[in-house]
Amino acid sequence: MRIVAFGTYRLWEQPRVQVLFEGLREHGHELVEVNVPLQVDTAERVKAARQPLRAPLVAARVARAWRELWRQAKEVPEPDVVLVPYMGQFDVHLARRRFESKPIVLDHYLFFKDTAIDRGTTFKPELAVLDRIDKSAVRAADLVFVDSEGHRELLPEPIRSEAFTVYIGTPKEWFHEPEPRNEGPIRIVFFGIYTPLQGAPVIGEAIRRLDPDPAEVRFTMAGRGQDLAWTKDLAGDSPAVEWFDWVERDELPTLVFEHDICLGIFSPGAKGMRVIPNKVFQGAAAGCAIVTSDSVSQKEALGDAARFVEPGDPQALADALRWLIADRDRIWALRQAAYRRAVEAFAPAAVVEPLQARLQAGVRKRR
Question: What is the residue-wise DSSP string for 17-74?
Answer without folding.
Answer: HHHHHHHHHHTT-EEEEEE---S--HHHHHHHHH-TTTHHHHHHHHHHHHHHHHHHHT
